[in-house]
Design goal:
Number of strands: 12
Largest sheet: 5 strands, parallel
Radius of gyration: 25 Å
CATH topology of the largest domain: Arc Repressor Mutant, subunit A
Number of domains: 3
Helix content: 40-55%
Oligomer: single chain
Structural class: alpha/beta
Strand content: 15-25%
Strand order of the largest sheet: 2-3-4-1-5
CATH class of the largest domain: Mainly Alpha
Shape: globular
């Protein structure tokens, strides 16, 4: 159920707001790079951070350089209350010379890559502006952008004229699942169902919650006239050439082909092609590499590939392969049952987050955690403490379990745990289960097991 009519405040981002506040209060010039995928909430974060501050926010349009410069002059003119600036025929350097006279003025250039696309020599101009005009002032310059490839190559790469000049950077990540409750969802189960589609992307969460408030069912929020129907393709096309090959690789991963060989077999692409495309997707934070916990990443090929957020996962699992059916019928056959199965792996992410936030509810504090696998054996979560030699094995189930179900799962978990080689002769083992609902979970807790269900979240 969604609470109708709830006003959604700015949600979380406490760490990012604290970092920006520290930058703003410093007694030196700051060059701050803020980047992250579209809809992640970069602009809202900046607007929240500059409340009560003297700041000039400028959204860089996909326009001619002169038009952007003229618009920027107008904003600066109003911000520092100097109408002559708007009328002056300033260059970028001359305009920033006027800006440099101010104390702790915050300048935001949002979607900065749009400026560079029109004229790449501007990077060298901004290098000069920083080195010769701003460096010894108290001006705070924020360069923000959504194109990860362009932001990293233009601003963070060692070949960039601005390399080494930034004083801070924020890569904005999705919100954690628990924060979806702040968007108007009144149960953790509903929050997880929304999270499986939207991940922690604020704009997607707002859109889905609004539609559910309006009486739509979950399978209606991605129909062809809705934002989520095509957003993934728009994002990928904005970053990559030849997107069709990337789409096939992403579809392969979304359907559970997470090993390199499985992806190559599914796509029928040559191994060098798969390797190159996966590398590009990893660099863009669309795909993640993962390794079994305790494994030396540098010495193993036992890696798996996963889509970096749930929206991409959902899109290439449900929307992309079913577009024709969605367009013709506005639905996907068997969606509810299939989506419920899909939520099993989403629940693993949520459960891992829950354990991280609630270590005081565990028998020990862990310093490492992750998924583990070896050949045909897999354990959803393994958490351990290298100092105390304690280890916790956890299975996650997106279902309601009776006592017999739990006993059977825990027995299998104990059998699999013996295959994990870590202090096997001298370790303290703990076993646990996290599920949607556990019958008589206090009985299992009394027996020394870790047992959580949604009532604990």
């Amino acid at each position: 159920m969604i609470i109708v009519g709830k006003v959604i405040p700015f949600v979380n981002r406490k760490r990012e707001l604290s970092s920006l506040n520290n930058f703003f209060n410093s007694d030196r010039a700051e060059l701050i790079v803020i980047y992250g995928r579209r809809r992640i909430g970069k602009t809202e974060l900046i607007k929240e951070a500059i409340k009560g501050q003297k700041a000039a926010y400028f959204f860089v349009e996909q326009a001619l350089e002169k038009d952007n410069l003229d618009s920027f002059k107008e904003i600066i003119s109003k911000t520092i209350d100097n109408p002559l600036i708007a009328k002056a025929d300033f260059t970028w350097e001359e305009l920033f010379q006027q800006i440099a006279k101010e104390e702790k003025l915050i300048i935001i250039l949002d979607e900065f890559p749009n400026l560079i696309t029109e004229n790449k020599t501007l990077l060298s101009k901004f290098q000069k502006i920083w080195d010769e005009i701003l460096k010894n002032t108290t001006i705070k310059l924020i360069l923000c952008g959504s194109s990860i490839s362009m932001m990293e190559s233009y601003l963070l790469d060692h070949k960039s004229p601005l390399y080494g000049r930034r004083t801070g950077q924020l890569f904005i990540m999705p919100l954690k699942a628990g924060y979806i409750l702040d968007f108007g969802v009144d149960s953790i189960e509903d929050a997880i169902r929304v999270f499986g589609i939207t991940d922690g992307i604020p704009e997607y969460i707002k859109d889905v919650c609004y539609r559910l408030n309006s009486g739509e069912r979950l399978e209606e929020v991605f129909q062809q006239d809705k934002v989520l129907f095509a957003e993934a393709e728009v994002l990928i096309k904005s970053e990559l050439r030849d997107p069709t090959r990337y789409f096939k690789i992403l579809k392969a991963i979304a359907f559970g082909n997470t090993k390199f060989g499985e992806i190559a077999n599914y796509t029928e692409f040559p191994a060098p092609t798969v390797s190159k495309y996966l590398s590009n997707l990893i660099n863009l934070h669309i795909v993640n590499e993962s390794y079994p916990v305790l494994v030396d990443k540098e010495r193993t090929r036992n890696r798996r590939y996963h889509l970096s957020d749930n929206y991409f996962d959902f899109y290439f699992r449900f929307i992309y392969p079913n577009k024709s059916e969605i367009i013709s019928t506005d639905r996907i056959s068997g969606f509810e049952a299939d989506y419920n199965r899909y939520l099993g792996r989403i629940f693993e992410k949520v459960s891992e987050e829950f354990l991280k936030l609630n270590t005081d509810m565990l028998p020990f504090r862990f310093n490492r955690k992750g998924r583990w696998w070896f050949r045909d054996k897999e354990i959803d979560i393994v958490a351990l403490n290298d100092n105390t030699r304690e280890i916790l094995f956890v299975e996650c189930k997106w279902s309601s379990l009776n006592q017999n179900d739990v006993k059977h799962i825990l027995e299998l978990l104990k059998q699999k745990s013996g295959h994990l080689r870590w202090n096997n002769d001298n370790r303290i083992e703990h076993f646990g289960i996290i599920a949607k609902k556990i019958q008589d979970k206090e009985t299992f807790r009394a027996q020394g097991f870790v047992a959580f269900d949604l009532d604990d979240f």
